[in-house]
Amino acid sequence: xxxxxxxxxxxxxxxxxxxxxxxxxxxxxxxxxxxxxxxxxxxxxxxxxxxxxxxxxxxxxxxxxxxxxxxxxxxxxxxxxxxxxxxxxxxxxxxxxxxxxxxxxxxxxxxxxxxxxxxxxxxxxxxxxxxxxxxxxxxxxxxxxxxxxxxxxxxxxxxxxxxxxxxxxxxxxxxxxxxxxxxxxxxxxxxxxxxxxxxxxxxxxxxxxxxxxxxxxxxxxxxxxxxxxxxxxxxxxxxxxxxxxxxxxxxxxxxxxxxxxxxxxxxxxxxxxxxxxxxxxxxxxxxxxxxxxxxx
Length: 296
Known about the structure:
About 80% of the residues lie in helices and about 0% in strands. The protein is built from 13 helices and no strands. It has helices at about 1-50, 65-70, 70-105, 110-120, 125-135, 140-150, 165-185, 190-200, 205-230, 235-240, 250-260, 265-290, 290-295.
């Protein structure tokens, strides 16, 4: 018995040593990347956090964070930022999910052509696209001109220099960021499972909601998180299409630095935005179980 057990133990020890060597090798190979991430990401965040803890005189203070809680202006900026980001995310889902579902049912060549059309906006800068929407949405723009020529409206609609214009422009820019992961998730779904559900007696609608939709959730959540997080830090589009009436956090941070040279207050805004974003992702993880969701 002992002679037979000895080789098994030796093999186990050998396997453990090999695993340790592989882990050390992987750590050594990833060390340059980890170091680059530390330098590029974590060190600036640490520097930003340290700035928020000091006043203009260099004294340690919590005034910058207290101002965010006490100031109605800062609270309003946070509210507008999350309001716009949530609206843009919802509209992107409402437009992007049917589009991805339709493209996933197309023949491969036609679906590739549609995907190229989705990616075309990436070939133009955000600034150019924002100015294009400004031309379309202003009072004397093309959209108001068409609506008046068709007799649908008597006076031009206020589509630019407000919240509506900012949301329209941001949806156009953010939509591809939802379509890309969602379409990839839908293309990986085996449609035979949906056909099997229909063959077992489920209606097409029930087969969609019980089979297809749950399997598309990883791509949907990836797109939602991507769109929402990117929208929180938007600057150019709300600055131009908002016409100064829409102030998101990126604009507030920029004005705090350029107009008041208050790096501590601007840093505190950035730190709070980062913490709130991480907290929202954690809540999504706890509520929806994203680890189990992406493990499907």
